[in-house]
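Researcher: Next sequence.
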Amino acid sequence: MSSKRIAFQKFINAMRKISLEVNDLEICKRLDILMATSKEDLSLSLINDLVSDPIHFDPKIIPEPFTQYARHYVYMAKRNAKLGPQLDSPSQEGGEDSDLPTEPSKSQTKKPKPRAGSTKHREEQEPVRQALVTRVIKEIPVKKPKKPKK
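Model: Next structure:
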């Protein structure tokens, strides 16, 4: 299949961009496989609506094999919104209580964003992933091994 399939590419790129957890990346891999085997493209207008406002998007309007991926995208967007500004793109400034001298904002310097699979992207996401892993590890109860009976 040599066609471009623009809507698919836009959807998978948007999913990769907001992926934080290992299961997010696994779902992206499964979506890649589904895209490779699917014969038709998604509606570009639906994908644009999903990407532009995922929190208010109804995933049920996406055709069936892709509905679960749209639901997961909405879930990731809501999760990232709850986790707060530490997950936002680096172009956003800190809070109002910043006493630092004003410098040109990062969005004005127009540095290229790292691609979702690039090393730089993984390095930027690593502190967030590490915090999630640490939180999960702390929640897992540790069982002490039983002593064998003689």
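Model: The chain is about 55% helix and 0% strand. The CA atoms of residues 108 and 127 lie 25 Å apart.
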